[in-house]
Amino acid sequence: MKKLFTTLSNIWKIQELKERIVYTLMILLVYRFVSHAVLPGVDATLLGDNTKSGILGLLDMFAGGSFSRVSILALGVMPYISASIVVQLLGIAVPSFQKMQKEGESGRKKLNQITRYLTVAITAVQAIGYVKTQVPAEAIIIDHTLFFVLATFVLSAGTLFVMWLGEKITDKGIGNGISLIIMVGIIARLPIALSQEVSSRVVGEGGGLIALVLEIVALFAVVMFTIMIVQGVRKVPVQYAKRIVGNRQFGGVRQYIPLKVNAAGVMPIIFAQALMFIPATLTGFFPSLQNTWLIQFSDYTSLAYSLTFAFLIIAFTFFYTAITVNPTQMSDDMKKNGGFIPGIKPGLSTSSFIDDVISKITFPGAIFLAIIAILPSIAVKFGIKSEFAHFYGGTSLLILVGVVLDTLQQIESYLLMRHYDGLMKTGRVTGRTGIPAASGSNAVI
Known about the structure:
Elements (H helix, E strand, L loop, with lengths): L1 H12 L1 H20 L19 H9 L15 H16 L1 H7 L3 H29 L10 H29 L4 H11 L2 H13 L5 H24 L1 E8 L2 E3 L2 E3 L3 E7 L6 H19 L17 H22 L2 H10 L2 E2 L7 H34 L4 H4 L4 H24 L28
Antiparallel strand pairs: 1-4, 1-5, 2-3
Helix pairs in contact: 2-7, 2-8, 4-5, 4-6, 5-6, 6-7, 7-8, 8-16, 9-10, 10-16, 11-12, 12-14, 13-14
């Protein structure tokens, strides 16, 4: 405990780090304050119970409740994330985008500019859909045509404002701005969810304090398990040839390639979740399908939903790892720098060896990721309230763990540069080395 307080005091002694932390907290406070501003022309008292479920509930969670409050920031950063994913996938499939990725800083700026323009287009489309389908007609107190035009522009401006706040945090604060904004939106739901869970356990016949303590212990164990998956790496040894240049020796040392157990990050869950919402969308548009087998996929706690969801996550984990991790490129780069894996011939043999290692560690990583994803449905089966059960796994928990580790890594780097002890007594916070959802410094999740 004494070391913890010493570390916190050391953080406050570094002027630049202190200013960055204060700046980040102020920007996040501004975001939370503005997120409670309701769209002009809407009477908040007439919204009633506007809670969302399914994919809309997921969007509402990422937006910190702004989606259901009909806030000016209702769309949050989701259009930006969608645009970032599209640009990233184009960078894998389109040669011109691949060329920009290899152009360094200039290419990164071009890709970021394309991402911004695409964000504006996606935001405009989503704003129109949101106004048409999610704003209760009885809550609109001005002319509906005027409200439709006004709300579309305001929602688009709100998303651009959130994106600007995120970029300001990345440039002048600590951590990744967009990721921190998403994390704050998720954490904002925790007090309400926790209070509901406490009330359900303590008041009435919910099991009392013992059941509540067991839930907290289980949540702690799940978080530790998630950290283990996010941090897990397989170190492949690489030996570099010794070179003598003048009177100095270069190379001749052994290093490691850290291959992550979960190289795909949170993306397989996002892709799988998008597909799992298709049956619910179809039954919503075509009521006649509600009496068919598709209705099973409207309940995320059902066995059919969980098994299908887990299978899709495993499949997408292999797919996303295959398109983002290139063993041939790694082998070529190693060969150019005079490096080799002990006992493995450079070139094709090295590429095949790395590919084999990635295949072996991806399978357990995919299984563990699928388990984390379906834990909320298992928690609901054990009597935990749905709102609180979302913190037991899924996209929200992976984002929380990843963002916290990433931010702690940056703080630790400041401490170590000033010759202070790091946050950990032994070892270092390694943070995330992947999970990009955009090109450049504004990569999220």
